[in-house]
Amino acid sequence: MILVTFLLSIIVSIYQSYGSEFQTRGIPLQRASIYNPFKDFMCLDGSSTIPFSYVNDDFCDCTDGTDEPGTSACSNGLFFCTNKGHISRFIPSSFVNDGFCDCCDGSDEYLTSNCTNLCEQLGEEARREAERRSQKISEGARLREQMMAEAKRLLKEKQERVAVLENEKSEAVRLKDEAESLKKTAEERESAVLEEFRAKEKAQRDLKAQEEAEEELKEVKSLFETYDSNGDGVLQVEEVKSRPIFDQNKDTVVTDDEIKFMEIGEINYDTFVEKVWPILKPIVTMSKVKVYPPEEEAWKDNTEEEPNEDNNEEELNDDEIPENGDLENEDEETENKDSYEPTYDEETAKIVEEANQARSHYESTLRTVQDLDRELSHIKEFLSKDYGTDDEFAPLDGQCFTYTDREYSYKLCPFDQVTQMSKSGGSETRLGTWAGWADKEYSTMLYDKGQSCWNGPQRSTRVTVNCGLENEVKSASEPNKCEYVLEFETPAACKLSEKNKDTHDEL
């Protein structure tokens, strides 16, 4: 009995001294104490306790698979690759002895030993890459500090500008209100004098129109008397047909169609004024502006010699047709009315000019206020954005960066929008406008509410932000319809904590 106890103590001592040599396959050194071959094994989820001989016996006894870390018996088990010289990691225990080398040290294929230990080689490459990344992060962090300093300067400048603009706006609003009051007073004076001026002008126009109408009636009466060749106070068809002015087609014959107005019957002076003159007026007008010497000669050949009053009519046709019937003059008058600019008297012109100047001055002060409002709004929007923990991304606002692949050119304007344009030409397509950050780590920008796809949703873009020594879009893709992903590098994303993290992982 004493001998057995002595032997057991020796075995325990040896295990404690050389535990790593007897370490259970598939577990990290940190868990070695849990897998004690001299004790029953308790499943890590506490579901059951089994004899240690059941560990790695190629049969799954624990529901969490922790009794088979070194075999593929448990579908939910994990095998630990020590990978000395490189990075240790866990792999699914189902990968153990499956014929593929998953651990760089080949420990997962221990039954065949066909795997070459590549850990030292891979570790060396990883260390070189880690060193390059460390240097990149260090340099990027230095540039990030510069961007932070630039951000601080920008924000201070913007805040100071807001204070200046607020003061300028207060004064501009005061001047605008003052100008508006002056404009109102000037326009009231203008309205009063223009009302008086228009009343006088209307009275003058009415008087002139009355005089012209009376003059026209005199001329119409004279024309009626000329056409009424027998002086009986009634126009007859024969009297009208004898007048070449009614020969509209100039064939030397006045047809019934050319004097349809005669169908109304006997035409006395009143009927002539009321019904015939409106029809004749254009004809008389045209006869004045167009002269037909050959036709008149023809009329002389085809008509008997008329009394002297006919000669008087010919003189009237050529020289005395009332100007009021001139169609072209009427058109000119209409055109002149459209472009009519009244000629004011000196006092009225002065008041109108003062009102114009008051309006112009008010509009100028209003534009000044609007310009200040726009600038204030733009700056306040800038100041309201989240530019990172230390505002390190602020200098990117207002800049744009492009990336071109085989088909498209992409433009990223941080904190504004993302656009796309076909290399073959055409207009830009908006892939989204600034919507904020996706996480507290400031590693992903979100842009939404872009232009709608054909029969699809509005376009949107996620921009992953990584450490880089330059501000540069590295790639662009559309993994899902109307959903775009851009990769963007910037020194603003270079943090020394990332360097420390890499060092920790490598250790």
Automatic annotation (TrEMBL):
Key word Calcium present in the record? yes
Molecular-function GO terms, alphabetical: calcium ion binding
Q: Where is the signal peptide?
A: 1-19
Question: Keywords assigned by UniProt?
Answer: Calcium, Coiled coil, Disulfide bond, Endoplasmic reticulum, Signal
Q: Where is the composition biased (Acidic residues)?
A: 303-335
Q: Which InterPro entries match?
A: EF-hand-dom_pair (IPR011992), EF_Hand_1_Ca_BS (IPR018247), EF_hand_dom (IPR002048), Gtb1-like (IPR039794), LDL_receptor-like_sf (IPR036055), LDrepeatLR_classA_rpt (IPR002172), Man6P_isomerase_rcpt-bd_dom_sf (IPR009011), MRH_dom (IPR044865)
Residue runs in coiled coils: 141-230
Highest taxon of the source? Answer: Eukaryota
One Pfam annotation reads PRKCSH-like
* A Gene Ontology cellular-component term: glucosidase II complex
Q: Which PANTHER family match?
A: GLUCOSIDASE 2 SUBUNIT BETA (PTHR12630:SF1), N-LINKED OLIGOSACCHARIDE PROCESSING (PTHR12630)
What is the official name of this protein in its record?
A: Glucosidase 2 subunit beta
Q: Which organism is it from?
A: Riptortus pedestris (Bean bug)
